[in-house]
Amino acid sequence: MDRIVFQAINGPLERERERREREREERREREKEREREGERESERERERGREREEREREREKRREQIEGGERREREREREPEP
User: Fold this and answer.
1) Could you tell me the CA-to-CA distances from 68 to 54, 56, 61, 63, 73 in Å, in that order?
2) How does 11-29 read in b/e, with b if 16+ C-beta sit within 10 Å?
3) Quick one: pLDDT at residue 82?
4) Assign residue 81 a region: left if phi > 0, alpha if psi is -120 to 50, beta otherwise?
5) d(CA 32, CA 24)
6) Residue 42, pLDDT score
7) Rounded Cα–Cα distance for residues 1 and 28 (Å)
8) What is the pLDDT of residue 53?
9) pLDDT tens per residue, range 71-82
10) What is the distance between the alpha carbons of residues 15 and 79, in angstroms, rounded to a whole number?
11) CA distances from residue 64 to 39, 50, 53, 60, 68 in whole angstroms, order as listed
12) Mean pLDDT across the chain
């Protein structure tokens, strides 16, 4: 009889404790996933920054080549023809 009463009282308490523990664990897992996602997003941002810098260097290089070609052409135009 005592065992039945004990189970009747403690059974719901034990289930509630287990439920809270599961919820706590789920919250921890969600938080870890948010952290991992934040790290992935940070890495994506760094990669986009590197790509932007590379495109800018390429643009600058092309611009310098174009300006150099135009400068050479102007110099040729200024030279008297033999």
Assistant:
1) 21, 18, 10, 8, 9
2) eeeeeeeeeeeeeeeeeee
3) 60
4) beta
5) 12
6) 95
7) 40
8) 98
9) 887 877 777 666
10) 96
11) 38, 21, 16, 6, 6
12) 90
Instruction: Tell me the HSE value of 68 on the side-chain side, using a 13 A CA sphere.
Output: 6
Looking only at Cα atoms, what is the longest distance across the chain?
123
Q: How far apart are the first and last CA of the chain?
A: 123
User: Rounded CA gap, 7 and 25, in Å?
Assistant: 26
Calpha distance 16→10 (Å, rounded): 10
- Predicted confidence at residue 46, as pLDDT, reads 96
Tokens standing for 54?
A: 């590379």
Residue 66, both tokens: 């174009």
Which residue type does 78 have?
Answer: R
Is residue 20's pLDDT more than 90? yes
